């Protein structure tokens, strides 16, 4: 990323072509660095300055990047920028936005984006429905996920693809419900009719499910289907089948699959090797017994022939025949002993092979740990050199903090491959302690970060305890993230205790970003008192809140209808000359006052925005219209609406819903009907339930309603 930063910061950036910008954006959009996100915004501005109109690719990259950074609302705001630049919104645009909400597990946001997409006349495609089905399914809302699938094929006639069925099948399997098997069978019939091919992973899931249910015939059916469609089985496929055959004691089928694996160069893991060896030895012993039985039967036949001819043989012939028989018996015994010896040698070879494979894996792990240790030492050396070379005392703390964050991020991704091996992470730390390797904070913070990223609270706390026993400290970033995870895991009391204990014992100084993160976490679980408590700590420590801090706290207070709290924070905001207010904080204030029933404050803020020509958005309009409707400020309501029309403000369907509902609430039926019948349609919107319901509710208690009600209903049908 640094190379792109240097390129776009150089004086030669006017030589860049449009493709250069798009290529850079396609790389930067996936980065989790805040610097990368800021650079994307700057590139959009530079393209405007250089006369290069940003296209959909540019804005799609910006939407995707905001999703990576967990900013779905900012991603939605990009749509306004696209409209301003007259860039056409497409289905792919909304798919990218819906994917952003999916990344945050925000089903409500994804649904709003889906509805707006259809309101704008855009048709969802298979990617749209796949994302929604996967989102609701993983949230446990299987019924809603299935409704989207039915809507996809029945209402909108969108053809499902292999991803659709992969997602649905895995959702049914993971649900653990009894009727899931029947539903999966129905999906398989649908797949067969549509001639769609699933991937190997999904086939493995099906085989495993039926294997656990002891439905052996279904296992064979799916395996044969996989082979028929020329899909290559992988190691997991074979392991599932082998485990089933071991449980069923079906040695022949077991050996058939085992030999097929070996022919394809696929080898067993340790667990399966332990399960397979007894089966191989059993077959070999059976083979030995069969050969011994055949030889014994041959000897018995020879003895019978000897007895039949015994009367006609001379004594010498008898002796010669007995000697031959003894030689044959000795030969048979010798062959039997040789077979037993081969069996013992084979068992020994198999054990040695297993030990060798284990040693090779241990050696490989040791080499990987040595390589990680070398890279770790290199990172530690680089950190020490950066600190040593920093001569500017005034900027020392900020520079060190920036370097530390970058190295922490790099090291965390270095261990990212271990994210599913929590025990290995802990063993890695224990090994360093055992070998008395100095554990830099950057290492311990990265290891805690892995546990936090995997929502493993207990694992992170366990690693933290190990570090504290060594006299080490935890960094600001993992401390903040671990505390946040404890809060969102509904362990808020433990989080508060951990927060004050670590701050007191390790003297950690949290920055504004950390405080804002923790305040937001408490507000999400509706623990507003703890959020206010942290805000007080923040002010006492001299940490200056930013716009996001204020907006988050005001939103939480409004949701709790705490007028006094909202008013106090509003007063602090007005006194804070270091904060540059944006429309987000104004909207939060207006919404909070509206919830608390103080409409006068809402209208005061609106008047200040209009008088000072401050920009406002559609959310602002909805709030002020709703406030006027509830407060019966009819004159102000009509005045605001006329001013919006005069300014040719880009009104949305939600703005029309707000004005219609406000007018109907105040018995202004004719005005509401006029807006619905004329302005609403002229703006290109299609009526929906929320458009009509306020009028019908008003007519419910009105005398002589029949004519008007009939007119509304007739208009809806038309």
TrEMBL record:
* Xref: Pfam families: PPR, PPR_2, PPR_3
The protein's matches in InterPro entries, at most eight in alphabetical order, are given as: PPR_rpt, TPR-like_helical_dom_sf, TPR_rpt
Each PPR repeat occupies one of these ranges, namely 90-124, 125-159, 199-233, 234-268, 511-545, 652-687
List keywords of the entry alphabetically: Repeat, TPR repeat
Give the start-end ranges of region Disordered.
288-310
Q: Does the keyword Repeat apply?
A: yes
Q: List compositional bias (Low complexity) regions by residue number.
A: 295-310
What are the start and end residues of each TPR repeat?
Answer: 126-159
How does it associate, per the subunit comment? Answer: Binds to mitochondrial small subunit 15S rRNA.
Family, similarity comment:
Belongs to the CCM1 family.
Its job: Regulates mitochondrial small subunit maturation by controlling 15S rRNA 5'-end processing. Localizes to the 5' precursor of the 15S rRNA in a position that is subsequently occupied by mS47 in the mature yeast mtSSU. Uses structure and sequence-specific RNA recognition, binding to a single-stranded region of the precursor and specifically recognizing bases -6 to -1. The exchange of Ccm1 for mS47 is coupled to the irreversible removal of precursor rRNA that is accompanied by conformational changes of the mitoribosomal proteins uS5m and mS26.
What this protein is called in its record is 6355_t:CDS:1
Q: What is the lineage of its organism?
A: Eukaryota, Fungi, Fungi incertae sedis, Mucoromycota, Glomeromycotina
